[in-house]
Amino acid sequence: MKKLFTVIALVLLFAAPVFANGAQESANKVYKVAANAEWPPFEFVDESGEIVGFEMDLVRAIGKAMNVEIEIQNVAWDGIFAGLQTGMYDAVASGVTVTEERKESMDFTTPFVTLDQAILVKVGGPEYKNEKDLAGKKVGVQNGTTGHFAVQDAGIKDIKNFDNIPDAVLDLANGNIDAVVCDSLVANDYVLTNDQFKGTLVVTGHLENTDVEDIAMCTTKGNPFLQILEEGYQKCLADGTVDALKAKYNIL
Predict the structure, then answer these.
(1) Co-location of 193 and 226 in the same domain
(2) What is the greatest pairwise CA distance in the chain?
(3) What's the predicted TM-score (pTM) here?
(4) Within 10 A of 143 (CB to CB), how many other CB atoms are there?
(5) In this model, does residue 73 exceed pLDDT 50?
(6) CA triple 139-140-142, angle to 5 deg
(7) Is 111 helix (H, G, I), strand (E, B) or coil?
(8) How far apart are CA 141 and CA 159, in angstroms?
């Protein structure tokens, strides 16, 4: 019996530093959140080079509410989900639409915004109301987005793919394409608040072949970081932070 107590004491003695290191590692954990910072008002780079926007401010508020450190990484949209699956970051917060297909490989927070796919055109030009009006037109989209897929599903043949929405919008303003299809909140931001395009571009319609989309943050399946994001979001919702951020970024 004395030997047994001695063995247990030795095990606990050697295990203690391990437990301590584990607790310290958890406390020092820096959670990495990926965003494609080219989607105002959700995420964009301001004049000082800082990644800002509704979703970025919300991520930071969640980190503060949960007392965890979160690092935001600006990455290209193409491959953002592959990077999530390979562990390059812990979550994606980048205007991500919740879909049944994505639910198969990802977990989502409670959606915080709903939107649809808007048609953006130049002021004074044809006012395209829906996908039928876009038949035979050159339509710009960001590659791999729900807008891109919706335009394809509508049978539109002349699609110009861009790596990001700002390039698509600029091409539209320069008269190289007839319209841009993108998330409605993003389109409205270019029309209402972007000094470069305000008064130049206008939203004239929406795609009818798509449902209203729920936007949320996502992690890989079973990632415990989802619980931190969800609990933090609920705290920010309860204390009025979410509503204040929506007002700040003109999200109705």
Answers:
(1) no
(2) 92
(3) 0.74
(4) 15
(5) yes
(6) 140
(7) coil
(8) 7
pLDDT digits (tens, 9 = 90+) for 152-165: 999 999 999 999 99
Is there a single domain that holds both residue 219 and residue 104? yes
Tell me: do 153 and 200 sit in the same domain.
Answer: yes
Burial class (CB in 10 A: 0-12, 13-18, 19+), 229: buried
182: containing domain: 117-206
Tokens of 231: 């609990």
Task: Tell me what the mean pLDDT of segment 204-232 comes to.
Answer: 95
pLDDT digits (tens, 9 = 90+) for 26-51: 457 999 999 999 988 999 999 999 99
Q: What share of the chain is helix, strand, coil (3-state, %, to 5)?
A: 40, 25, 35
- Asked whether residue 140 falls in the same domain as residue 191, the answer is yes
Output b/e per residue, 26-64; b: 16+ Cβ within 10 A.
eeeeebbbbbbbbbbbbbbeeeeeebbbbbbbbbebbbe
| Order of all β-strands in the sheet with 38-39 | 38-39, 43-45, 51-52
Pair 88, 50 in one domain: yes
Is 243 part of a structural domain of the chain? Answer: yes
Q: What is the CA radius of gyration of the chain?
A: 22
Decide if 9 is inside a domain.
no
Asked if the structure places residue 236 within a domain, the reply is yes
Assign residue 145 the CATH number of its domain.
3.40.190.10
Question: For the stretch 68-93, what's the b/e string if a residue is b when 16 or more beta carbons lie within 10 angstroms of its beta carbon?
Answer: bebebeebebeebbebbeeeebbbbb
Please determine, for residue 5, whether its predicted confidence score (pLDDT) is greater than 50: no
